[in-house]
Amino acid sequence: MPTDISRLVHNVNEQGFTALEKTGLRGQQDQGLVSTLISRDLSGSDDLCVSWGRILPGQHHLCHHHPDASEFYVVISGAPLVHLGDTDYRAKPGDGIYIPRGTTHGITNDGDEDVNLVVGVSKPADWQFVADE
């Protein structure tokens, strides 16, 4: 019996992006775009969620943490300022960044090109987003 790939393969260019929807502690809007590629609802995953993220020039993805999930970023393009705990790191294409559960993190695109990154979370859905700013 052939494998049904309709739930297993998703393409960012076909799906497009949606705007991030979280709100910060002072009512500020989270900024950036996301296209989910692997998740519980989309793919039937029971152990992870993977998305393509895009942060446009001048945008800031709010600093936050996940008490119930670890996360990673793989930078595809751009040179964002990645906030990790109390440290800021100037990322570059090819960087893999691990964010342990409970670690405050966020991204600022202070450059003039789009930041594209692959984002993975260690839960397939329903992880907690706790704003830290």
Automatic annotation (TrEMBL):
Keyword tags: Metal-binding
Record Gene3D superfamilies: Jelly Rolls
Keyword Oxidoreductase attached: no
Segments forming domain Cupin type-2: 54-119
Cross-referenced Pfam families: Cupin_2
Transmembrane segments: none
PANTHER family: CUPIN TYPE-2 DOMAIN-CONTAINING PROTEIN, OXALATE-BINDING PROTEIN
Identification of the protein by name: Cupin type-2 domain-containing protein
Protein species of origin: Arthrobacter gyeryongensis
